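Weekly structure sync, notes
Attendees: PL (lead), two postdocs, one rotation student
Agenda item 3: pending single-chain targets
PL asked that the sequence for the first pending target be pasted directly into the notes so everyone works from the same version. It is reproduced below exactly as submitted, 123 residues in total.
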Amino acid sequence: QVQLVESGGGLVQAGGSLRLSCAASGGAASGVSMGWFRQAPGKEREFVAVISQSGRDTGYADSVKGRFTISRDNAKNMVYLLMNNLKPDDTAVYYCAACGNFGRLLRSEYDYRGQGTQVTVSS
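Predicted structure, written out during the meeting:
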């Protein structure tokens, strides 16, 4: 079992930045790939970013590439999503997710997910 708790969401103006954090706990937390997804009202879940267990491999949705950066600190069991140049279209609930398979996260599949943190970008 892996428990995930997100933090760092909030209200920001377009062009601004936020850093989301995800605290992972549980015996398998350091041995899984981690990712971020988002879901806006009335829309389907959308893959945002993924990072491998070692941190060497990352992947991003085209909509955030060049603006968002995913990272992890395995010593602290933390995963981060730095979001720069935010746009109103980035408004959504952001979820941290964990999966034993990097490829599944790229396909928007996961084994564990947190409760989410709201990000609102005003124009």
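Discussion points:
- The longest strand covers residues 18-25.
- The chain has a mean pLDDT of 94.
Action: rotation student to compare against the earlier draft before next sync.
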